[in-house]
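Milestone M4 deliverable, item 7.
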Amino acid sequence: MTQRHLRLFTVLFIALPAVLASAAEATIEVPERSPPRQDLIDSRDTVRKAERDRMYMQLLQQRQILAELRQRYSEQHPDVVATSRRVAELEARLREQGLLTTPPEGFRKDPPR
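Output delivered:
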């Protein structure tokens, strides 16, 4: 055996099993779980509120655009149809989250004829 082989043999069959045995006997202490940090909870609420506000703003913008389009075009016009669909999608998302239960006062889903 060469010197290199002897060192490899020593590491693989003598030193490594000793290290593994001592590692197996070691205990790992798991720290107790701390309560959630209030600042993180507050930041999650802030994110939710920001998302809700963004969706409300989009809804108001799309409703304004829809009102302007309805003054110029019929209900079958592609722009009116697409904008109506976007308004309906935003309303549905807000309803799913419990943020929109009834249409706002003064808003008519069906346009006057």
